[in-house]
Amino acid sequence: MNIGNASDKSGLPAKTIRYYEDIGLLKPDRADNGYRDYSISDVHKLRFLQRSRGLGFTVEECRQLLALYEDKSRASADVKSIAQSKLQEIERKIVELRELQHTLKHLVAHCHGDQRPDCPILESISGAARPDPS
Predict the structure, then answer these.
(1) How far apart are CA 47 and CA 10, in angstroms?
(2) How far is residue 103 CA from its own chain's centroid?
């Protein structure tokens, strides 16, 4: 099938499919005319990549997961290790986002939001951006 059909069946834009091919995640056959010829297996890989990316895995992590997916003698411990690392990364990001949320809530609550020029939000940002005088 051509890239348009592969795009329709996988739900990924043709540009993304070409990118995955460029970086070696996908290697479709070539027809006699030189055009890419995507197989059902290629579409399955594209869907796998789409779901992996949707779960937050990086392209390199997707490469590892795809290799494990294709390796029928894989150890599930290897897959679990990658997923656990991603989960820990997400949990760290959640903590960071909660801290940001707390700070912004505090700043918004203390900003009058009226015609006065003083603003604790800008004061906080500019104070953080000032070089240390020492």
Answers:
(1) 5
(2) 26
Q: Output the pLDDT for position 117.
A: 82
Q: Which pLDDT belongs to residue 96?
A: 98
Backbone angles phi, psi at 29, to 5 degrees: -65, 165
Residue 5 tokens, joined: 């059909």
The whole-angstrom separation of Cα 27 and Cα 13 is: 17
Taken as a whole, the chain contains a residue count of 134
Q: In 3D, which of 69, 87, 70, 88 has the Cα closest to residue 79?
A: 69
* Contact partners, residue 69, CB within 8 Å, separation at least 6: 48
The Cα 77–Cα 56 span in angstroms is 19
In this prediction the pTM is 0.77
Domains of the chain (ranges; CATH) run: 1-74 (1.10.1660.10), 88-129 (no CATH)
> What is the structure's pLDDT at 133?
55
What is the mean pLDDT, run by run of 10 residues, along the chain of 134 residues? 96 97 94 91 97 97 96 96 98 98 93 84 76 54
**Contact (CB, 8 A) for 3 and 38:** yes
